[in-house]
Design a protein that fits this description.
Rossmann fold, 19% strand, alpha/beta, binds flavin mononucleotide, single chain, 5-stranded parallel beta sheet
């Protein structure tokens, strides 16, 4: 593992429980891969610009990568190409990904660049890599206590697989409105789950 890309997507920065877990996860990865560099992109505190017509035109026309309208898209795709591990810390906002992450998706999923359109459907053009998604939410969307739909997990899974990223582990920190004690229980369960992840397993096994 040479380079880890961490996407922070929530408005609370380091105060976010999801972000804390993602940072912990990165630390554990770096214990196993001390040479691994960390590239961090905070999509909430440094939001990407809204899409403009020039970008939409260039995307639809499959303009060459050196088109100035594609500069940011190229930069973001380049960050992904230059990393071999992806960690996403995202809250659930209105049953799906927050707007900050949606914009990143709109710059990174580009026909003819990060995926190809074929007769049998879209095929990813980026290399697969271990990917962790920490989802935090005020309420519940999985399990017996679920009282709302989950458009985040299947959506993000589909988005990432569209560009070739299939090696995914989701971690869910649900019900965070219930207070600190509940949050600590969720964090402990998440750590237990992650202990079984092959990339976080005992040193040497998958390094
Ligand atoms: C605009 C907005 C929309 C939200 N929508 C949902 C939602 O649909 N479902 C839910 O369970 N929580 C929702 N929440 C609560 C957040 O998911 C929660 O505050 C956050 O994930 C807390 O986690 P953190 O400590 O990691 O930041 C919403 C919060 C905001 C600000």
């Amino acid at each position: 593992m040479q380079r880890i890309l961490l996407l922070e997507c929530g408005p609370y920065g380091r105060q976010s429980r999801g972000s804390r877990l993602a940072q912990e996860l990165v630390e554990r990865l770096r214990e196993r891969h001390p040479q691994a560099q960390l590239v961090e992109r905070d999509l909430a505190s440094e939001p990407l610009p809204a899409l403009h017509a020039a970008y939409a035109d260039a995307l639809v026309a499959q303009a060459p990568g050196d088109d100035p309208a594609l500069r940011l898209s190229e930069q973001l795709i380049g960050e992904l190409e230059n990393s071999d591990c992806l960690v996403i810390a995202t809250p659930m906002h209105n049953f799906t990904v927050p707007a900050a992450l949606k914009l990143w998706i709109d710059y990174v999923l580009r026909i003819g660049r990060s995926f190809a359109a074929t007769e049998s459907g879209k095929v990813g053009l980026l290399a697969d890599r271990p990917t962790f998604v920490v989802v935090s939410s005020g309420g519940f969307y999985r399990g017996e206590q679920a009282r709302q739909p989950d458009f985040l997990t299947p959506y993000l899974r589909h988005v990432l697989s569209t560009i070739g990223i299939h090696d995914l582990e989701f971690v869910h920190l649900q019900g965070l409105v219930r207070g600190q004690e509940h949050a600590e229980t969720m964090l402990a369960q998440a750590r237990e789950q992650l202990a079984f992840n092959p990339y976080l397993a005992a040193q040497g096994e998958y390094s």
